[in-house]
Amino acid sequence: MRKVIKVENLSKAYQLGNFSTGTISRDLERFWARIRGEEDPFLKIGEVNDPSIKGVSDVVWSLRDINFEIEQGDAVGIIGRNGAGKSTLLKILSRVTSPTGGSIKIKGRVSSLLEVGTGFHPELSGRENIFLNGTILGMRRAEIQSKFDEIVDFAGIERYIDTPVKRYSSGMYVRLAFAVAAHLESEILIVDEVLAVGDAEFQKKCLGRMGDISKGEGRTVLFVSHNMDSVRALCNRGILLNNGSVLFKGAVDDAIRNYLSNSIDEQINTSVSNVTLNSEVVLELFEINKAAIISHEDLEFTIRVKSAHINHFSSAAILVYDEIDQKVAFFDLRCKALYEQSDRTERIEISGTLKNLPLLPGVYKLAIHIQSVLLYKDFMDLIRFEVLQKPLPDDNLAYPLHVRGRTEIDYDFSIKQGLF
Amino acid sequence: MKDLTEDDWDIEITSKNDVFDLKLRDVWQYRDLLLLLVKRDFVTFYKQTVLGPIWFFVQPVITIIMYSVVFGHLAGIPTDGVPMPLFYLAGTIIWNYFADCLTKTSTVFRDNAAVLGKVYFPRLIMPLSIVLSNLIKFGVQLILFVVLIIFYWLKGTVIIPNMLVLLFPLLILLIAAQGLGLGMIISAVTTKYRDLTFIVSFGVPLLMYTTTVIYPLSVVLQKFHNYSWLIKLNPVTAVVETFRYGFLGKGSFDLELLAYCCVITACILVAGTIVFNRVEKNFVDTV
Predict the structure, then answer these.
(1) Are A349 and A313 in contact (CB under 8 A)?
(2) pLDDT surpassing 50 at residue B1
(3) Which residue of A has its CA nearest to B284?
């Protein structure tokens, strides 16, 4: 495969705060430094872009020494937290702004979709806006003409094609805008999170179309999104940015795993130890073997409780809560062995496997319920794990969560072939 | 598939910027966009109006009526023997074209920040589209001017255009270049310092009085001979004077003045493009 994008030592500095009085004198200083062939005096003191730390200098590096290469036909997901530099990278790639240092080399035409409907004029009709928007995105007029019917069809707005777009519903507006963009012919397509628009059905259509572009037509797609499901569905490579530098580049699944373990660090913890449950009982250990599973995978757990003296257990359970603290499952751990063991010793250890977890993607919290002589209580939110979307057959995209009910049931199906 | 060597890349994005590289090839690639932007400006100008394109005539007509009353009759400023409406209209349409190009171009980055911040296309397209769409407006008003000439001619007034009419394309080029060049210089500075926009908003109407729109150059030469160089310094003056002389056969033609105007215009245009080119790459960060 040949390389189509090569990014070398790319850096971008931004100046924080206001441009007002004082900028002109600083500009003169810069100018003077440049004449003498020196480095910009205000860039030397730049620092890493971490919004939570108040910096000394008001120059911040949004990107610093980024290096990567992209091959033809790759669909690359660019992921990272807010402020990691994703948008800046896209802006530089799409030549909206220029880097402070380093270079990008590109082979082929680039179209960027940092927003849908750029340049739409409310007074103009759908037809006129298709042409205007298309040419803004770099298409030739004849090209648009030849694809016109396809575009209108994709957007599904034949009836309104000669109505000014200011009278469109917001859904129609977005559909039309995306339809134009979806028919771009450039070799490289750069897409920001524009898919966060429209209804679920249309989102699916958009992602499907983008999948066609990269997989079917062999063009290169760069895609920025916070939605890991769409990134996984669409991309085969991933670049993980953090504080303006590349943290990981490689296969998309690894990048996402890396991002999740990185970004939900504070959220996900797979074990707790020595939690004081009350003055006489300590939860020595509660752990699970994985931070993230795919729906229907198993999860192994271990619970170790130590009491100050013999403490009869009459019940124990693991409770599963979702992100909004709704209880989604209950695992009963009562058994004769538990009662007997707790009568014999101060230490109880329970281990086991939660099988085929039928959970929808998301973060889940585990709680423990203990009913004993010394202690009778639920202990909420002790550890957390994440459930990831199971890949669907034929590269289908998963439906959004809100339409999928509460459980993910394992199933099988087939289509009867032939005529009958 | 052949292996790529280092110089096979189509696009190279770096922090350095060749100020003399106007990316005219890019502009040519995007010529359809240029035309559509012009069409957009033209069409949206009269959308949802009853009179439609007639509005292009209303402004100059009312302007020349006002000028005739105030400057012609009230102040009694002579018009070189040309009927007042013709005299004022000639100056007004040229001046308006210049002023529209200048003011619109000077705010081009701010007005189009939403589009320019999201998509790449050669930035030069935007000011060029301004110059072209105003050229259409100018053309429509020129028709009004010609109709008025014919009207006076039928009435029996002696109006003899001369060979200098042939300079008309050059004059248009000059006035467009002046508006564009100055506008680009101002636009470049205003991305960072908004102060200049205030100067433009009151300065451009005032600047009209330093141009021979409402008075002929002959009057200035006669009354303020020592200061007439100030009026001549203004490059628009040469264009207005030559335009009037060519179409109406009255007034003055000064080859030296026109030559000076050409030189100054070229300087303004070159300076404007260089400054514009410097700014266009990063204006998104500051505008």
Answers:
(1) no
(2) no
(3) A97
ipTM of the complex: 0.81
In angstroms, the CA A74 to CA A250 distance is 11
Question: If you average pLDDT over residues B269-278, what whole number do you get?
Answer: 88
Please give the span between the terminal C-alpha atoms of chain A, in angstroms, as a whole number. 46
**Burial of A57 (C-beta count, 10 Å sphere; 0-12/13-18/19+):** middle
Looking at residue A267, its pLDDT comes to: 63
Is the CB of residue A107 less than 8 Å away from at least one CB of chain B?
yes
CB contact set of A281 (below 8 Å; sequence gap of 6+) = A305, A306, A307, A308, A311, A370, A372, A374, A375
Whether A374 has a pLDDT exceeding 50, the answer reads: yes
**Cα–Cα–Cα angle for A102, A104, A108, nearest 5°?**
170
E strands within A245-326? Answer: 245-251, 271-276, 281-288, 292-294, 299-307, 313-321
Indicate whether B4 pLDDT > 50: no
Q: Name the residue with tokens 């997989």.
A: A215
Using one digit for the tens of pLDDT, what is the confidence trace for A223-268? Answer: 887 777 778 878 888 998 888 888 888 888 888 877 776 655 556 6
SS3 of residue A1 by DSSP: coil
Nearest-neighbour CA in chain B from A138: distance (Å)? 7
Q: A361 and A400 in contact (C-beta within 8 Å)?
A: no
Residue B66 binned pLDDT confidence (cut-offs 50, 70, 90): very high
Interface touch A23/B12, C-beta < 8 Å: no
- The pLDDT, as a whole number, for residue B233 is 85
For residue A363, what are the β-bridge partners? A386
Q: How far apart are CA A391 and CA A273, in angstroms?
A: 34
Both tokens assigned to B47 = 């959308």
Residues of B with CB under 8 A from a CB of A: 1, 3-4, 8-15, 17, 30, 32-33, 35-37, 39-40, 43-44, 47-48, 114-121, 192-193, 281-282, 284-286
- Contact between residue A180 and residue A209 where contact means Cβ atoms under 8 Å apart: no
* Token digits of residue A300: 């192994």
% of chain A at pLDDT higher than 90:
16
